[in-house]
Amino acid sequence: MAHYDLIVIGAGSGGVRAARVAAAHGAKVAIAEEHRVGGTCVIRGCVPKKLLVYGAHFAEDLNDAAMFGWDVPQTSFNWPVLRDNMLAEVGRLEGLYEQTMANHDVTIFHERAELVGPNEIRLASGSSHTARIICVATGASPLMPEIPGVEHAISSNEVFHLNELPKRIVIAGGGYIANEFAGIFHQFGAHVTIVNRSDAILRGYDEQLRDRLLQISLAKGIDFKFNSTFNAIERQEDGSLKIDMHGCDDISADQVLFASGRRPNVAGLGLDAAGVVLGDNGEIKVDADNRTNVASIYAIGDVTDRVQLTPVAIREGQAFADSVFGGKPTRVDYNCIPSAVFSHPPLAGVGMTESEARNKLGSVRIYTSDFRPMKNVLAGRNERSLYKLVVDETTDEVVGVHMIGPDAPELLQVAAIAVKAKLKKADFDATVALHPSMAEELVLMR
Ligand code: NDP
C-alpha cells in the first residue's frame, strides 16, 4: 500500500488535467484508468470524430472542385485507410498523455479502481492505496435502451472501429452525436435515417439554426423519423437488421447507432462504501468547488453531469487542482460556454438563444444574416448559411451569437470572446468588415 496526496480515478480530459496540475503544485499523485489514457474525448469522442468529419468533408470538396476548374477523375473512398490513420493518431495522442503524466511523476495504474472508503481505493489486481484526497473523473457512457436485440446495435464507442461501412444506417437520437454521425455517414455514401423520440433535434440550440440544419440535412437526403422509438432489433438471415419501430414504419438497415445521451459512470465504483451521495440521474453531486458530501472526495467532468463538454471538464480539473493543491481558490464560470455541433454544415452558438433571451430579458433585438457563401455559389451548392445576433434591447449588449455554415465553430470561438466581454451591438457595428469573408457578416448586420 502506498499513500498519495491525490488519487484520481479516470484518466480522461478532466482527470489528466487535475493530476498534472496537482503534481505541478508539488502533490504526490496517482491516476487509475481501466481503459486507455485520454478518455472519451481523445480515444472515442471529439478527436477521432473530428478526423472523420474532415475525412467526410472531402466528398463535397471533391464534388465542388470541378466548378473551380479541377478535373477530378473518378473518386472512391477507402474506409479502412481513414479508420486506421485516425486510430493511429488516437494512439499517438494517448502516448503523449501518458508522457505528460510521466513528466510530472504521476503514477499511472492501468487498471480499474474502486473506492473502499473516504481515503482508500482498491485496484482490480487487489492492491489498496490511500490518499488525502480522491478525485473521481470517470466520465460517462452511452445510454443503450433495454430492447430485444440491442446487442446488434452499436454506440459511439464502437463506431470508430467498424470493419466496413454500412450501406444503410439508422441513428437513434437527435442530439450532438446523431447529427454529427449522420453527416459523416451520409458523406461516405450511406443512407442515413435519424430516429428521434421527440419532434425536435438539438434541443438547447437556437430554433432557427436547428430548422436550417434540418432543412439542409433533408435536402441532402438524410431521412428523419420523429416521435418514434424502437421496439426491437432482429438480425436477418442475410445479415441485415430489421428494426421494429413504434411511431413509424419498420426499418431495414445494416447498422443501428444509439446516440441517445450518456449516463455518468458510477456503477461498481464503491461510492456507496465511501458514503458519496448521488443525484437523480446517477450523477455525483458536488458543490461549486467540485467537492462531494464526503470532505476528502471530489468529482469533476461528465460523471457530475453538469455540462458534458471536454473544455468544461478540463476547467473543472484545473480549478480543483489549483484550489486544493495550489492555494489558489478557483471556481469554474459556467456562463457563456460556446459549443458546436460538427454536422454538415456545422453549427455553433454561445450565450442566449432568441427564445431564452425573450423569456429572460423581455425586450430583445434580433439580427440575422441569411446568405449563400461565395464558395457555395460558384460550386453551385445551394446551401445557405445563417448567422444570428441576439441583442438586449435595454443595454445594447450582444447576449447571443448563433451560426450555421462552413467553419461556424472556428468563427464562433472568436465571437464568444465578444459575448463573454459583454460587448455591445455598437461595438460590432464599429468594427470594419474583413472582406471577403463569411465572418464579416457578424459586423454587417443592421
Ligand atoms: P444529446 O444529449 O446531445 O442528445 C440526446 C438525444 O437523445 C436527444 O435527441 C434526446 O431527445 C434523445 N434521448 C435522450 N434520452 C433518450 C431516451 N431515453 N430514449 C430515446 N431518446 C432519448 O446526447 P448525445 O448522445 O448526442 O451526446 C452526449 C453528450 O456528449 C452531449 O450532450 C454533449 O454534451 C456531448 N457531445 C458533445 C459534442 C460536441 O461538443 N460537438 C459531440 C458529441 C457529444 P430529447 O431532445 O427529446 O431529450
How is this structure best described in words?
This protein folds into three domains: 204 residues, FAD/NAD(P)-binding domain (3-Layer(bba) Sandwich); 108 residues, FAD/NAD(P)-binding domain (3-Layer(bba) Sandwich), CATH 3.50.50.60; 99 residues, Enolase-like, domain 1, CATH 3.30.390. The longest helix is centred in the first third of the chain and has 25 residues. The chain contains 13 helices and 21 strands. Helices cover 33% and strands 24% of the residues. The model has no long low-confidence stretch (mean pLDDT 97). Helix 1 packs parallel to helix 8 and helix 3 packs across helix 5. By secondary structure, the chain is α/β, with parallel strands linked by helices. The structure holds NADPH dihydro-nicotinamide-adenine-dinucleotide phosphate. NADPH dihydro-nicotinamide-adenine-dinucleotide phosphate (NDP) binds next to helix 5 and strand 17. NADPH dihydro-nicotinamide-adenine-dinucleotide phosphate binds next to helix 5 and strand 17.
